[in-house]
Amino acid sequence: MVDRLSKFLRPGFLRRCVATLGLATAASCTTAAPPAAIAVASVAPRPALWQVSDKDTTVYLFGTIHLLPRDSQWRTPALDDAIARSQALMLETIIDDKNPVELAGAMASLGFRNDLPPLAQRVDPGKRTLLETAIAKTGIPRAAFDRMETWAAAFSLIGLQFRSIGLEGGEGVEAVLRSSFQSAGKSVGQLETNREQLGFFDSLPESAQRALLEGAVETPGNMREHFQGMLSAWLRGDIDAIAKTFNEDLSASPELMDALIRRRNANWSKWIEGRMGQPGTVMVAVGAGHLAGAGSVQDYLRKTGMKVRRVQ
């Protein structure tokens, strides 16, 4: 019987997860990009920034986008001030591009099996030509794809779509923030391991994984327009628009909403609650989708009695 998840996962769902749901491991699948095809907004940026504080502790919450066009302008005086005040940075996970042993190991252990049907049998027959065309562009040996879990194959192919419209992981918010903090001699930590992040998709039912794969091999088409809208909402700090996108995607599946958003938000909120017991200032930067809408990190914090104030 077809799992009901596959009925509502729209083709762009994986792209939105990679961009704004704190799934930075998927963003690492992208490769060097051509000149940016996404128009960089000319309006003054104001991406949303929050502050949780008491008498001796401050935690800044900043929602991120993992992939951006080259030369994107998103830093502001308020954000730069928060960065300068923060003694440490916490990301959802750390991708070490120079030594990706952890990510490669997690992908190898979770993303490959020898008892899988050929990948071509895991998509609709009408999309097999698109699949083979996409695989040929990756440079990865064709036989390797037949050993990939369906979600892993989707991640390996989604980078082609991002590259086609000029998006780069190296231009993403996490990469820039991490460089800023490390250059200043400040510590950078992670809320989840690479393995934990990949595990969220590894646990999806196969029918849902196949829906993701079919979305990953679709021709870009209106992807540029969709991403431009999401980028514009993020740059102007429109959390209602960001929340609306994910509510539409996930409202039909409480299970997926719980796995990808609520459980992770609850875990991160507990970390922040514990950190408030130590003096000092830290910035927590996670996918913007986690800081928007019902069940956001801020909602969890407010339920514990903490005061969350938006500062940008």
Question: What does this entry look like structurally?
Answer:
The protein has one domain (4-310). It is built from 14 helices and eight strands. The protein has 312 residues and is α/β, with parallel strands linked by helices. 48% of the residues lie in helices and 12% in strands. The chain has helices at 13-20, 24-27, 77-85, 101-111, 128-138, 142-146, 150-164, 173-183, 194-202, 206-217, 223-235, 239-250, 254-275, 297-303, and strands at 49-53, 57-64, 68-69, 88-91, 167-168, 187-190, 280-287, 308-310. The strands form two sheets. A six-stranded mixed β-sheet has the order 6-4-7-2-1-8. It has a two-stranded antiparallel sheet with strand order 3-5. Helix 4 runs parallel beside helix 9 (194-202). The chain is globular, with a radius of gyration of 19 Å.
List the strand order in the largest sheet: 6-4-7-2-1-8
What is the chain-wise order of helices and strands? HHEEEHEHHHHEHEHHHHHEHE
Q: Considering DSSP H and I runs of 4 or more, what fraction of the residues is helical? A: 40-55%
Sheet of most strands: 6 strands, mixed
Q: Which structural class is indicated by helix and strand composition?
A: alpha/beta
**Rounded radius of gyration (Å):** 19 Å
Form type: globular
- Share in β-strands: 5-15%
Low confidence ranges:
1-8, 30-36
Domain tally: 1
Intertermini distance = 47 Å
- Overall pLDDT level: 83
DSSP summary: helix tally: 14
